[in-house]
Amino acid sequence: MKLVVLEENTACCPGVTAEHGLSLYLETGETRILFDMGQTAAFAENAAALGIDLSQVDFAVISHGHYDHTGGLSRFLELNSNAPVYLSPWAPEPHYNAKDTFIGMTLPEQNRERLIFCPDGFSPAPGIILKNTISCPLPIEPYGLQMEQAGRRVPEDFRHEQYLEIQEEGRRILVSGCSHRGIENIAGYFSPDILIGGFHLMKQEDSRVLSAVADALLQLPTVYYTGHCTGQTQYDFLKERMGSRLHRLSTGTTLIL
């Protein structure tokens, strides 16, 4: 499988723009996938600089309904005239941060018919599954994030988060946008060979908690590739403990997995 990071908080090469957000391009077999679309249209400019033709993407996946993963949606729909965009039925619901600032997604004015609100376990192509329902034995920490229900703002349960599982050559590869439901819960539920995505630890400063995360992840047969909302300080802490089992992603990173 080929992975190209089109957008992330940092950049690893000249000629691309970094911003707080995430967008990944994946090739598996003959299927081309766009996973998330960053905060702005910068992901599309980066794709062009990296030689990725977004008009040839077969389908796109939105991991969850936050602005830094969906801001480039309208631009993608302009560049690609056919690809469906798969997202959770709850992704368009209003979402807010701890300061009551709206951080949800904005639905495009045109081409809304290409947005497909898919059920748990939906398969957009052979060997590819989208999951939005998982068991979470460990408590979910919302870090002040809120969702709106019946006109009231309540702590997020992240029901709008979904995960992309790819089965290829006897391996299971999981792609997660921010892992808001807890990276330990998600990794433990899927136990993939490779996990790609943010760990949402950037606000976690307790070394005991980070040590527990590292220990839990090391118990699984998984190699991890992370960035975006993991946090640089937190990544450095985990890397020291996890060694070659953990790798950093940046805008411009290209990997054959």
Could you give a short description of this structure?
By secondary structure, the protein is α/β, with parallel strands linked by helices.
Strand order of the largest sheet: 7-5-4-3-2-1-17
**Shape category:** globular
Give the biggest beta sheet.
7 strands, mixed
The SS-based structural class is alpha/beta
Distance between the termini: 5 Å
| Rg from Cα | 17 Å
- Secondary-structure element string: EEEHEHHEEEEEEEEEHEHEHEE
Strand content: 25-35%
Q: Low-confidence parts, pLDDT < 50 over ≥5 residues?
A: none
How many beta-strand segments?
A: 17
**What is the overall pLDDT average?**
97
Q: Given the structure, what is the number of helices?
A: 6
> How much helical structure, as a percent, in the residues?
10-25%
Features:
alpha/beta; seven-stranded mixed sheet; globular; 19% helix; 257 residues
Would you write up a description of this structure?
- The structure is a single chain.
- This protein has helices at 42-49, 67-70, 73-79, 183-190, 207-218, 232-242, and strands at residues 2-7, 23-28, 31-35, 59-61, 85-87, 95-96, 115-117, 122-125, 128-131, 146-149, 152-155, 163-168, 171-176, 194-197, 223-226, 246-248, 254-256.
- Strands 7-5-4-3-2-1-17 form a 7-stranded mixed sheet. A 7-stranded mixed sheet has the order 8-9-12-13-14-15-16, covered by helices on one side. It has a 3-stranded antiparallel sheet with strand order 6-10-11, with no helix packed on it.
- The chain contains 6 helices and 17 strands.
- Helix 5 (207-218) crosses helix 6.
